[in-house]
Design a protein that fits this description.
By secondary structure, this protein is mainly α. The protein is 49% helix and 0% strand. It has helices at 42-50, 55-89, 91-98. The radius of gyration is 27 Å and the shape is flat.
Length: 106
């Protein structure tokens, strides 16, 4: 958060951010913020619905999420099948599935 009252290179610490007294004035960054997965639970959906977001919007989002889960499941099953096929047929199977032919590469 940027505080406009501060000038130059100043840092303002809230009381809750000071864990113990110290004369050390160095500033260390432990971790930068990262993206976190968001979820729509019933309370959030209810709140947004009361603020005017339609039921149809949430239903369409639910359908989109289910399609993504279904696609992930299909991809995972295909990868497992490919691994099993590769184990049973060896190196030749990998080149057949990928469409490359090592004999024509020379």
């Amino acid at each position: 958060m940027v505080k406009k009252e501060l000038e130059g290179r100043q840092i303002h610490l809230r009381k809750s951010q000071t864990k113990f007294p110290s004369e050390d004035l160095t500033f260390n960054v432990i971790r930068c913020s990262t993206f976190g997965q968001g979820y729509l639970n019933r309370s959030i959906i209810l709140l947004l619905n009361c603020l005017g977001v339609s039921d149809d919007y949430f239903i369409s989002k639910q359908r989109q999420a289910k399609q993504l889960v279904d696609l992930d499941s299909v991809r995972d099953r295909l990868n497992i099948a490919l691994q099993l096929y590769n184990r049973s047929k060896g190196r030749k199977a990998q080149t057949e599935v990928s469409g490359s032919n090592p004999e024509s590469a020379s």
